[in-house]
Amino acid sequence: xxxxxxxxVFKQVTSDVIIEIALxxxxxxxxxxxxxxILPWLADNLFGKRRLLVLAFIPTIRVVVFVFALVWIVPLxxxxxxxxxxxxxxxxxxxxxxxxxxYVSSLLAxxxxxxxxxxxxxxxxxxxxxxxxxxxxxxxxxxxxTPDDTVVFIPHQKLWTGLIYNANxxxxxxxxxxxxxxxxxxxxxxxxxxxxxxxxTSPYVQLAKPISVVVSEKPWGTHYKLxxxxxxxxxxxxxxxxxxxRGKNAVREAGFKLASLxxxxxxxGVP
Amino acid sequence: MATENHWQVVPFDEFELPSAPARTIxxxxxxxxxxxxxxxxxxxxxxxxxxxxxxxxFDRAPAVxxxxxxxxxxxxxxxxxSVRWLISPPYSGAGQxxxxxxxxxxxxxxxxxxxxxxSQDSLAAWQGPKKGQPWVLTTLSAYxxxxxxxxxxxxxxxxALMRGDFGKGLVVCDxxxxxxxxxxxxxxxxxxxxxxxxxxxxxxxxxxEARTKQAxxxxxxxxxxxxxxxxxxxxxxxxxxxxxxxxxDCNDFTAFILHSLLLHHGLSEQxxxxxxxxxxxxxxxxxxxxxxxxxxxxxxxxxxxxxxxxYPLVRDxxxxxxxWLDQF
Lengths: 271, 328
Prior knowledge:
The complex is a heterodimer.
Chain A lengths: L1 H7 L6 H30 L3 H30 L4 H17 L2 H16 L7 E4 L2 E8 L3 E5 L5 E5 L2 H4 L2 E3 L9 E7 L5 H13 L11 E7 L2 E8 L7 H18 L9 H7 L2
Antiparallel strand pairs in A: 1-2, 1-5, 2-3, 3-4, 6-8, 7-8
Chain B lengths: L8 E3 L10 H16 L23 H16 L6 E6 L5 H12 L29 E3 L14 H12 L5 E6 H10 L7 E4 L4 H6 L6 H11 L3 H11 L15 H13 L4 H7 L5 H13 L3 E4 L2 E4 L4 H10 L8
Parallel strand pairs in B: 2-4, 2-5, 3-4
Antiparallel strand pairs in B: 1-5, 6-7
Helix pairs in contact in B: 2-3, 7-8
GO cellular component, one term (chain A): plasma membrane
Subcellular location (chain A): Cell inner membrane; Membrane
Family (chain A): Belongs to the MscS (TC 1.A.23) family.
């Protein structure tokens, strides 16, 4: 009897309905598949805001297509009334509660991620010590590629409890910080201006953004932090390399001495 | 009855780009899409390279008259000591017009300092302008190099100009150098002017016989830069023109080289090494050869320069990559 009642929830599925469902799934899959291939390719040929805008479409398209397909398919197999919906939701709820809690939590967090935007394709994020560029925001996990070209899959579930550090937050601006250590006896203003010029003359620097130098005194010398932005977040490592190389040369050529730690500080410096 | 002079000098802040017809905007978008998907215009025969037109000369007297009309009162005022700036987009011919005006006024034309002086923070060794003797400084881009040492002279010079150490004079500054100066040192430069964007009427005045619609499309493509417009017009008049085409494999290094060339209005290979030490020699040579083969750059007076007909293409490419651009 209960089984009959449960089966009443479903409509009679004819071969036409099956074909229609298959077609909807096929078209939806094709749209998502194409968007996940064409848009990243297009984005690779663009820069700055345009690139990030194109990348942001990928998860949005997937969610829109998924919802559209669901709205299309459900009424084909289920009589859409309140009683039936309660029955179906209860069954789904029990299944989720017992067997697929983590998976569904990640799926829901994935949908949440599309709207809350803690990360988007093209963002540089750090989660649990893994830092890299978001390449793909999937249904269950976000895929990042680290500077060492390692792919890391991070379940969206981390959204609920973990800390997510986003270095550029959907924009093309990503601050880079380069450290310089100088022996204590020198003119700090002269070095500060010199380091600002080092950033100003880098071809990678985004001139629309500020350049600043922060100085702090340490027992062994003076610590300079040169802060500036590359034109494109993808250039951050080449940019910091360029700043470091030219910065060290400029400091030496100007007659300033780089700091060298005394043995006791060097030992203290080791974690 | 004298013909109307369509040359006009306007305050720099009031410069307006010519409006682009919808067709031009769509064509630009389509061209960009074609570049992304790899559809390039058919390759031209290299033997046609020599047929490429050179930058056409035009009668500069009306432009000089426009300068006289704008700066005449100030120039005649013996009590005026301020410095005025004329911002010159690349290839626009504004520098040459200012030089003609200086000769007409018998003002002095100091030469840029030798390259080895660019790292000095003193102007003493430079045969520069003298107070009490009006002057015109042309090509400010020759007064600096974008490396940590060779911006010193320009910095000192700018401070002296701002203080009025040299009395009355006109500084002609390339628009890319001007954009860098304004951004890098957040200088608020007063009394800066430029030639207004070219109009169809001005094109007619300099001898371009194009229909108004055609002229508007051309001006939209060249952003009202007269020199570039004339060069592209001359190219269009050829039966088999050799059009510049960006190489398919453009990367960061390509963009850096092109940006540096525009920033300094041309650089020698030695200067390129100084400005872009991060590019290995082999890479630099390949990039230069490749760009030259695609008619994007050309050698001139021992320097590499962006070809005048390639300028709109290069500017668009740099804009798309997020570079800091000039205002023209």
